[in-house]
TrEMBL record:
One of its GO terms (cellular component) is cytosol. The keyword RNA-binding does not apply. It comes from Streptomyces corchorusii. SUPFAM superfamilies: Dimeric alpha+beta barrel. Residues 30-140 form the DyP dimeric alpha+beta barrel domain. Its cofactor is heme b. The keyword Transmembrane helix does not apply. This is Peroxidase. Pfam families: DyP_N. Keywords: Iron, Metal-binding, Oxidoreductase, Peroxidase.
């Protein structure tokens, strides 16, 4: 890895949605559009450059509220971006998420043929995201976004997903979400783990040196620099099935909560097993300065406290040497709940659609999102567990159990069903504000 350097990011040109952690609590809306008229699409980009919030705008009267504009590969085509520029983008982005389904293990019920229309099709050209700490601020953010797309014939709204924080500020499986956020060199935003050195800015923002010293930038530079890639992914959660699994594999309520913690790597409060190995510690879980400050290699290399196969250790092995160079695979991850909660204690599905909208931000689709999804989430080779899958979001087949390391005898749980089903997703490009203006000024 290259040595740390001092980098000054051009924050006034970078969209705030690239670097800022999600507010807590939060409300969010995703809006997808199809460009039917190229000229109108370019006008949308010109307006969007004024509606989007920059990473330098951290003292807005709206608080932790922002609007982000993302464009798919098909959207860049619809805008008339020259072929030479299109070919300079990451090849995974050019293919799109639906074409990458096999590598991502989006098969069976998660395959693109079952996705929610129009996700995964060439119809989705632009995705506008509004994020705020509460519904009133969200409405103000949507009003700001409406300045870009409102009354613009030739630009058609084709999909919307509203998200919100549950009263418990947890996701539907019952775990505190939004706990981890990496520090990005030059962003001025501290990471959630003080033991992790800031990552090179080029891991997240195009046009800057990354951990290997390379610089990735689609061409021309005015289009690529200060941009990033975004992965949007909608996952339906089988909450009733998850609850039944915990119940069926435990002898009492306390054991059920321990299994839930061993599957996730954290207690439901957010307290990590690494710091609270025996019992939940809600005070620790609510302490943003302590709940994510831990490593694995020195204190728990064999996973007797935090199992190597649990969700958080797969998603971010931290300092675990068996995972290779972890810093090459770090992403900014944000989750947002959608759908009504299943009432507490209910063990049968009510037919409602509920789950998480995920956003993953990074400059390297292949070695960040796709690597983590295919190798860490859906393969256990990196920590010696064969073809095992992540117990929470992995592509479980109902045949492989979950192992909890334990002395003197490990504990084996029943085969895991699939608790999270992909309902759709998109690979997008988050242009800089100057790139949005460049897209708006294109001419045939």
């Amino acid at each position: 890895m290259s040595a740390p350097t001092h980098v000054t990011l051009e924050l006034d040109d970078i969209q705030r949605g690239v670097l800022s952690p999600r507010p807590t609590p939060y409300a969010a809306t995703y809006l997808a559009f199809r460009i039917d008229d190229r000229t109108r699409g370019r006008e949308l980009m010109r307006r969007a450059s004024a509606a989007a919030t920059s990473a330098a705008d951290t003292s807005s009267p709206l608080g932790d509220t922002w609007v982000s504009i993302a464009v798919t590969y098909w959207g860049l085509q619809a805008l008339g971006v020259p072929r030479s520029s299109l070919d300079s983008f990451a090849w995974e982005f050019r293919q799109g998420m639906a074409a990458r389904a096999r590598a991502l293990r989006d098969e069976g019920a998660s395959s693109p043929q079952h996705w929610e229309a129009p996700l995964g099709t060439r119809e989705v050209h632009v995705v506008i995201t509004a994020v705020a700490p509460d519904p009133p601020h969200l409405e103000a953010a949507i009003d700001r976004a409406r300045l870009a797309y409102g009354r613009l014939p030739g630009v058609t709204a084709i999909w919307r997903q509203d998200c919100y924080a549950l009263p418990t500020e947890k996701e539907h499986f019952g775990y505190l979400d939004g706990v981890s956020h990496p520090a990005v060199e030059g962003s001025g935003i501290p990471g959630s783990n003080t033991l992790e050195a800031p990552l090179r800015s080029g891991e997240f923002v195009l046009g800057y040196p990354d951990e290997l010293g390379g610089v990735q930038t689609p061409q021309p530079a005015v289009l690529g620099r200060n941009g990033s890639y975004a992965v949007f992914r909608k996952l339906h959660q089988d909450v009733a099935g998850f609850r039944r699994y915990l119940r069926d594999n435990s002898a009492r309520a306390e054991d059920e909560e321990l299994i839930a913690a061993k599957i996730m790597g954290r207690w439901r409060s957010g307290a990590p097993l690494a710091l609270a190995p025996q019992h939940d510690d809600p005070a620790l879980g609510s302490d943003a300065h302590r709940r994510n400050t831990f490593l694995y290699e020195q204190d728990d290399p064999m996973g007797f406290t935090t199992p190597g196969g649990c969700h958080i250790r797969r998603a971010n092995p931290r300092d675990a040497s068996v995972a290779g160079e972890v810093r090459l695979h770090r992403m900014i991850r944000r989750g947002a709940v959608y759908g009504p909660p299943l009432p507490e204690g209910v063990l049968e599905d009510d037919g409602a659609d509920r789950g998480l909208m995920f956003a993953f931000i990074g400059a390297h689709l292949g070695r960040q999102f796709e690597f983590v999804q295919s190798q860490w989430m859906n393969d256990g080779v990196f920590f010696g567990a064969g073809a095992t899958k992540d117990p929470v979001v992995g592509a479980a087949d109902g045949h492989t159990g979950y192992t909890i390391p334990r002395r003197p005898v490990r504990r084996r749980l029943a085969p895991l069903p699939r608790f999270a089903v992909t309902r759709g997703g998109e690979y997008c490009f988050l242009p800089s504000l100057s790139a949005l203006r460049w897209l708006g000024d294109l001419h045939d």
